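Why does residue order matter? Because the sequence determines the fold. Keep that principle in mind as you read this record.
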Amino acid sequence: MFANRYTALVDACSLVSVVRRNLLLSLAEAEFFRLRWSVPILDETQTALVKLHSQRGTTNGKARARAAIDAMTTAFPDAMVEDFNEILAQPLGLPDPKDEHVVAAAVKTQAQAIVTENICDFPAELLGKLNLEARTADEFIADTIALEEGLAIAAIRNLRLRLKRPEMDASDLLRSFEAHGLFETVSVLSQHVASI
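Structure:
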């Protein structure tokens, strides 16, 4: 469907939140976009998940974080971007040099967008020269839903129906999205509560 037209590299900070991650992966599964990530991105995601589990006092935090990464890579075997080291050899001049690998992977896979919560770390003037843009998960998800609302609502309904701990009705789901800062997404979805 849309996946042949648009590729998005998702940064670790947008994958750590289970709510953002589930929404992004559900829309990628519905073929709204081609999902991409890299080993460094998944390593950062796993490290952040372990830390999050530790802060929450979750038992088996390391195993749960590894299981999340394994589930992602199993579900999206074509998402991995490799061999972008030569792009890293020429620094791009990002505010945080530790983010260079994200842009390098995006360039390698010819992505159009980097989905990240750290917009200020990816200046538009630098990314524009590479035909890239940085979008927050909220902006990206809301715009993705607007592409074909009926199909997107069906994907989000399927996401809701898969939730077991806890189960949620549509209103609960939207409140959860809002609690995780997905305000634009909720604004788009609020008129479709009956279908979710």
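The mean pLDDT is 93.
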